[in-house]
Amino acid sequence: MTSRSTRPRSTAPRPARRTPAVRPPRRPELRLPPLVEPPGWGLVPDGDYDGVEWRGDALDDGDGGGASFLDCLLSDCGLGGTRLTRARFVDSRLEAVRGVGTQLAEATLRDVEVIDARLGGTQAHGAVLERVVVRGGKLDYLNLRGAKLKDVVFEACVLVEPDFGGASLERVAFVDCVVKGADFNKVTLKDVDLRQAAELGVAAGIGGLRGAAISPDQLIDLAPALAAELGMRVLDLGE
């Protein structure tokens, strides 16, 4: 009886899995259930809305402060001056909303998609955004001072003079979007990726970008602001 030879097991170590230089954001996995029409009382403070579809509604100057929106859709709605302070949006989508002066201070957005929004002067200071995608549209003078952003993607949108002053950003990416005149004063960044931004303009707080990932081309574009931040004088020979 012959014995079957066995191959010795390889003792070579497996190659270590490479950790990405910048951890990407986790995107929301949004699947809305069948939706119902808004209740007869409409938008009210501390309201509780579950699986509601607001479509084409003029919610301008309405008051939904402290309201809760779960599995909801706001589509083609006017939000000019709408008060949504400390409101909670969970597993919801805001699509083609528009308006000036929307109040989202200290609001919570978790597992939310914001699609093709056209908003100006939105006050979202102190807000909490987690697993949020902002895709398309234009946001002018977005105030995110002191906000907390985690797993957030700004994609193919235009941000004009966004204010991130004092905010905390973790796993935030700017993809194919235009950023003009941003304020990064006293911001805290971790795994923030700016490399794919189509345009990156920083008006204030260039030093706040410490830890962010930028491309070589962006570094060249930001060189004058970086030199000014460091107090460097860039002079031609003979000057």
UniProtKB/TrEMBL annotation:
<feature type="compositionally biased region" description="Low complexity">
    <location>
        <begin position="1"/>
        <end position="21"/>
    </location>
</feature>
<dbReference type="Pfam" id="PF13599">
    <property type="entry name" value="Pentapeptide_4"/>
</dbReference>
<dbReference type="Pfam" id="PF00805">
    <property type="entry name" value="Pentapeptide"/>
</dbReference>
<feature type="region of interest" description="Disordered">
    <location>
        <begin position="1"/>
        <end position="42"/>
    </location>
</feature>
<dbReference type="InterPro" id="IPR051082">
    <property type="entry name" value="Pentapeptide-BTB/POZ_domain"/>
</dbReference>
<protein>
    <submittedName>
        <fullName>Pentapeptide repeat-containing protein</fullName>
    </submittedName>
</protein>
<dbReference type="InterPro" id="IPR001646">
    <property type="entry name" value="5peptide_repeat"/>
</dbReference>
